[in-house]
Amino acid sequence: MKRISSRNTFFAKKVLPVVWFGFLMLFVLIALTGSGQRFLPFLLVPAGMAVFGFFLMKNLVWDLVDEVYDCGDYLLIRNRGKKDEVALSNIMNVSASLLLNPPRITLRLINPGTFGREIAFSPVREFTLNPFAKNQIAEDLMVRVDQARSKRPV
């Protein structure tokens, strides 16, 4: 059993939002306690950043599962104390997103599991200076899913 999801998922899902929204609240508190007539921009900018940050995290971070383990012919997926085993033959599509931080791999399932029809996780990332480098975990999963589907009875 090999972990293929990043260990930074906890940081991205839990710590980063606290730091982001905490910094914005601190900025608002400083603007409210400071003396001056023109504090409205100091309230509107953090409000806009909070809305932007919320939608960005909702669509790119909070939907990531906590852990994904490669167990040979299936993947063990853990999220919020629940776990599910997804057979490679049950995966319809593997897609890897480039140029996102954190990087994502999305698995689309034939039959929905515990976590729904789509499962997204942040893979372990090898150091590279090439921002367009393909993710080896995604490439390996694509090949293995194709092999598993070709063995599946139609």
Name of the level-1 CATH class: Mainly Beta
Overall shape: elongated
Q: CATH architecture, please?
A: Roll
Mean pLDDT: 89
CATH fold descriptor: PH-domain like
Q: Give the strand order, joined by hyphens, for the main sheet.
A: 1-2-3-4
Structural class comes to alpha+beta
- Helix and strand run: EHHEEEEEEH
Given as residue ranges, the uncertain stretches (5+ residues, pLDDT < 50) are none
How would you characterize the largest beta sheet?
Answer: 4 strands, antiparallel
Radius of gyration: 20 Å
Structural summary, described in words:
The structure is a single chain. The protein has 154 residues and is of the alpha+beta class. The chain has one domain (1-154): Pleckstrin-homology domain (PH domain)/Phosphotyrosine-binding domain (PTB) (PH-domain like, Roll). Helices cover 40% and strands 27% of the residues. The protein has three helices and seven strands. The chain has helices at 9-33, 41-60, 136-151; strands at 2-3, 67-70, 74-79, 82-87, 91-97, 104-113, 116-121. Strand 3 and strand 4 form a beta hairpin. Helix 1 packs antiparallel against helix 2 (41-60). The relative contact order is 0.16. The model has no long low-confidence stretch (mean pLDDT 89).
